[in-house]
Amino acid sequence: MSGTRVEVGTEIPPLELDVDSEKMKVMAALLADPNPIHFDTRALAALGMDQRPVNQGPLNMGYLQTMLARWAGGRDRLLTFRVRFQGNVLAGDRVRASGTVTGVAQTDRGRVATCDISLEVLGGSTALTGTAEVLIDEETS
User: Fold this and answer.
1) Ramachandran sector of residue 41 (left: φ over 0; alpha: ψ -120 to 50; beta: rest)
2) Between the CA of residue 50 and those of 41, 47, 54, 114, what are the distances in Å?
3) CA pair distance 42, 37, nearest whole angstrom
């Protein structure tokens, strides 16, 4: 990110993607998540829910982290990450991860941007909101 001017109000390039039910099944297996709302449409129907599986929270957080890492130049530059879950993301949804720089500070590690971040379901509601601190220029000695 060296050479890029980052200041309060800088928009982070958004990340848009489609939520794939097959990837959700794989993630449920990797997380050993037995909750059937992530893969079993019959269980969803029995609960009176939309019959599209619900995406796992870690996947939703990962979309935001991927957006930040692409912008900053790597996952190692993500210093803090806090989110609040506000809604569901369902199989077949298209989501947009976005963010805005709300502060820039010089630290021992280098310049750090504080960012407001969110994950929105396109045509729907906001699924996650939060903040992150990202190393934008490393201190060199």
Assistant:
1) alpha
2) 9, 9, 9, 36
3) 9
Closest C-alpha among 81, 52, 58, 84 to residue 68: 81
Q: Does domain 11-20+55-138 have CATH number 3.40.50.150?
A: no
Listed by start position, the domains of the chain span: 11-20+55-138
Using the predicted structure, report yes or no on whether residue 40 has a pLDDT greater than 80.
yes
Per-residue pLDDT at 3 exceeds 70: no
Is the model's pTM score more than 0.85?
yes
Q: What is the pLDDT of residues 46-72, one digit of tens each?
A: 888 888 999 999 999 999 999 999 999
Q: Where are the alpha helices (DSSP H) in 20-122?
A: 21-30, 41-46, 57-72
Q: Determine contact, residues 122/90, Cβ cutoff 8 Å.
A: no
Tokens found for residue 130: 């939060």
C-alpha 56/C-alpha 60 separation (Å) is 7
Give Cα separations from 107 to 46, 110, 135 (angstroms).
52, 5, 9
**Segment 115-135, tens digit of pLDDT:** 999 999 999 999 999 999 999
